[in-house]
Design goal:
The protein is mostly helical. It is built from nine helices and six strands; from the N terminus they run ααβαβαβαββαααβα. It has a three-stranded parallel sheet. The longest helix has 19 residues.
Length: 211
């Protein structure tokens, strides 16, 4: 077998020049490794957006919100570039945390975790957060869950109601949860009950401490 079977398409090195992001992605289609994979993903998404009667679902996992990607996802929702979001509960917790004016902080993955613990600081790889602020968000969501009562609802319905509650509390409009509520884009959280256990554990601990 001649090697030409495998060598029909040569790579094209990226030129350093002014260009749009979309033009850069087009150029990366003829590169290798993760650069090409990113370009192929953008191309697949672009093809979906051009089709009619296509539902675009997005999966969101990993610590993307603490890493600073919240506004990107919110933009995709507001511009209706996705029709449905499937997310971990953690990302939506962190989104709610920031939507109410709290922060994540630039940190270091080399930090001493024992020292951080002594100062009430949590670490998400190289991002820091204040544990007390996290607990406030935990309790807020737990209190909200109690307020809506013992009703049977899907994760989609729960996130819609939480978005409505965040709006009532004056949350930022660039929130993922708020944007989904405003634009009626469903959010599904397959492991919502696992996320809720964390909220409930802190909430019950605080309640016991008060009594």
């Amino acid at each position: 077998m001649h090697h030409n079977v495998f060598t029909n398409t040569p790579t094209i090195p990226i030129d350093v020049k002014d260009r749009s992001v979309s033009e850069l992605m087009d150029g990366m289609l003829r590169t290798g490794f993760q650069g090409r994979k990113l370009a192929e993903s953008v191309q697949a998404w672009s093809n979906m957006l051009k089709e009619k009667d296509t539902t675009v679902l997005m999966g969101l996992s990993g610590a993307m919100v603490p890493a600073g990607m919240r506004r990107v996802i919110s933009y995709l929702i507001r511009e209706r570039m996705i029709d449905c979001l499937v997310s971990t509960g953690a990302n939506l917790f962190h989104d709610s945390h920031e939507a109410l004016g709290r922060k994540h902080y630039v940190g270091s993955h080399l930090a001493n975790d024992e020292k951080l613990f002594e100062h009430g600081v949590d670490r998400i790889y190289d991002v820091f957060a204040v544990e007390e602020e996290f607990r406030n968000a935990d309790n807020l969501i737990a209190d909200f869950a109690e307020e809506i009562g013992e009703i049977s609802c899907s994760s989609r319905e729960f996130m819609y109601l939480l978005g409505k509650e965040l709006v009532r509390r004056g949350a930022a409009e660039d929130s993922i949860v708020v944007s989904a509520y405003r634009h009626n884009v469903p959010i599904f959280v397959p492991a919502l009950s696992d996320s809720f256990h964390r909220y409930r554990a802190y909430h019950c601990k605080e309640k016991r401490a008060q009594t």
